[in-house]
Amino acid sequence: MAKKEANFDLYIHDLLVEAGIQADTQGSNIIEINNALKSASKHKTGNVGFPEYCAVVNDFVLVMEDKADRSNLCAFEDDGTTISLTVQATKHYAVNGALHYAKHILQNTTYDKIFAFGNAGDRKHHIIQPLFVDTNGYTWLPEVETFENFSANHILEYYKRIVLKETPPEDIELADILKKAKELHEYLRNYGGLGEDEKPLVVSAILLALREQKYSFRLDMLKGDFLESNTDGAILYQYLETNLQRAKVAPEVKKARVLNQFTLIKDRPQLNTKREDLGNKTPLKFFAEYINENIFKALISNSNEDYLGRFYGEFVSYSGGDGQSLGVVLTPSHITDLFCELVDLKPTDVILDPCCGTGGFLISGMHKMLKETKNPSKRLHIKQHQIHGIEIRDDMFSIATTNMILRGDGQSNLICEDFLAQDPGELQLRGGGITVGFMNPPYSQAKNKDTANLSELCFIRHLLNSITEGGRAAVIVPVSAMIGKTKDDKAIKKEILKNHTLEGVISLNKDTFYRVGTVPCIAVFTTGIPHPTEKKAKFINFEDDGYEVKKHLGLVETERAKDKRQYLLDCWHGKITDFPSSFMVETTVENTDEWIHSFYYYNDEIPTEEDFMNSIGDYLTFEFNMITHGKGYLFEQRGDAENA
Fold first, then answer.
1. What is the maximal distance between C-alpha atoms in the chain?
2. Are the CB atoms for 535 and 588 separated by under 8 Å?
3. Residue 108: other Cβ atoms inside 10 A
4. Are 320 and 405 in contact (CB under 8 A)?
5. What does the alpha-carbon distance between residue 361 and residue 351 come to, in Å, rounded to a whole number?
6. CA 561 to CA 545: how far, in whole Å?
7. Are 235 and 200 a contacting pair, CB within 8 Å?
8. How far apart are the first and last CA of the chain?
């Protein structure tokens, strides 16, 4: 038992190191805490007593007790809810011991905020149970897999969100943005008579014109003139065109394509006619004032959040659609950020998103690369040469272009073309050589034999062929694409393995695409290198990712998200090698396999004596119920057959 516990102690130590937490064993380097522990014996004799680990992070103390068996996690008093603090309980149970030390430190030092961790199990199967302890008592907190939430960068946020139950500023900001999106949608519909695809275009056009406020544009220029050359729409169009020139959008054909999508603001009489119910303003001026006052700053921020994409999704949903008729499923920012981590994106990489939509992947990729370099010339090179996108829809292409301009990048090398019609050999060479591919392809377009070439697997194959040898690609597709049971699907999967390496597939939260109803997964590949027969790919069940659907907000991050994400990345990158098969399985693959976790999963937990007794109890209960319902003959037949 001692060896098992020591092994588990080392695992906990590794997790602390991974989170950047400097923890002490057998005491504390903080004199005040160390002196307190000199009388902290769990025998309550007043002698010395040390937890497995003790650390101070900012103003918080962390104490930990480890046990080698999950059955020794916690002992309760007779009421079944109160943690017991008897000598026997604190000696033999992890949570009880941790609480004992926390209370002692609280009573004998000036520290007043303590996280106590009861850790029980082994490297593969364990429970890490935190408590928060202060002068008011203790509070149970959600179980964790890592100590990421308790690192110096995150512990205060965790404390405010989970212990104090404060709403984080980013949630407040997002709620406000989505509220404004709903209000703006109503205005665009009621006063502008705009369709669901036109609303984000009008917003994009106004945003580009508002950027010219740094130079000569003023909102009071919009006077509602009826002359065709001087309407509010004509003025806005003039300044957005100037802004496209200022952003150096090239080539001319690209700029013309974008401008063509924005002509509706000057061509639509309803947008340019004054209304008494708007204070004798035109709808366009009303929209421009509203956007400038409520939304403009958020949409031009350096955040990795694709707010224009959010607006597009909100407008579509409020209009009674979800975009699926055209295969449009926009990717949330926590997934676009995760892609960057899964492929270990570097500032030297060149990104291609061939189905870029509103530009979510490009924004996250650029944000990640810029964050990792401070050199001005390198940052400029990233913006001008290392971000590439393709989008087939004119309206989405214009929104993506606007999005990149708002981020200070008019040279994002976007083209409005059909990706599947592009030569993969030519695409490989863009930007000096594409090294990373991100993609969320159109879904459910392969309806029959005539459209079989539009399947998600066809998009994946074309993307992999469009990236240089040794590059990386991550795609998010419906789980059904990775199952691939048809003859054509198996043939494509065989071709993929012949030319590329499957690194793994991650099954995601069913609500990742909230309101869409698609259950997605992420597949990651290394390109241009045939999949070795002995290669073990990773198959992960990440359905519990720490994101939940909340009223009026949609899918939002909970306190568990950072912890869950860190554990995923630690397993993915090989930092954690002992993991339960319920979370991850490493195995060789065939093209005939279903490339998802559930296909390869097996239960690697050894049943306990309690599990065995419960199973026996369940069986006897079942047999008794059958007999009392007149079906005892089922068991008699079995006995007769055995006797025979």
1. 101
2. yes
3. 16
4. no
5. 9
6. 6
7. no
8. 47
Per DSSP, the three-state class of 477 is strand
Q: Measure the CA–CA gap between 52 and 55, rounded to whole angstroms.
A: 10
The number of residues in the chain equals: 644
- CA–CA distance, 405 with 398 (Å, rounded to integer): 11
Scan for tokens 């810029």, then name that residue. 370
Residue 368 phi, psi dihedral angles, 5° rounding: -65, -45
Q: List per-block mean pLDDT (blocks of 10 residues) for the chain, which spans 644 residues.
A: 76 94 91 92 87 95 95 94 95 96 95 97 94 96 95 94 84 77 88 87 93 94 94 97 86 85 95 95 96 81 66 58 49 93 97 93 93 92 92 90 80 87 95 96 80 89 98 96 88 96 97 86 98 97 93 81 95 93 96 95 72 78 81 64 45
Give pLDDT, residue 448.
76
- Between vectors from CA 615 to CA 612 and to CA 617, what angle results, nearest 5°? 110
Cα(340)–Cα(379) distance, integer angstroms: 17
Collapsing DSSP to helix, strand or coil, 572 comes out as helix
Helix (H, G, I), strand (E, B) or coil at 338: helix
| Alpha carbons 281 and 224: distance in angstroms, whole number | 7
Instruction: Give every CB contact of residue 19 below 8 A, 6+ residues apart in sequence.
Output: 146, 147, 148, 150, 151, 566
Q: Tokens 């606007």, residue?
A: 402
Cα 5 to chain centroid distance, Å, stands at 34
Give the model's pLDDT for residue 379: 92
ω into residue 251 within 30 of 0, thus cis? yes
3-state secondary structure of 130: strand
Degrees to nearest 5, angle at CA 624 with 621 and 628: 140
Q: What secondary structure letter does DSSP report for 163?
A: I
Query: pLDDT tens across 198-211, in order?
Result: 888 999 999 999 99
CB 458 within 8 A of CB 477: no
Q: What share of the chain is helix, strand, coil (3-state, %, to 5)?
A: 50, 15, 35
- Nearest CA among 368, 452, 454, 464 for reference residue 407: 368
Q: Determine the pLDDT at residue 410.
A: 56
**DSSP E strands, 281-393:** 351-353, 387-390
421: Cβ–Cβ under 8 A, 6 or more apart, which residues? none
The predicted pLDDT at position 290 comes to 92
Helix (H, G, I), strand (E, B) or coil at 44: coil
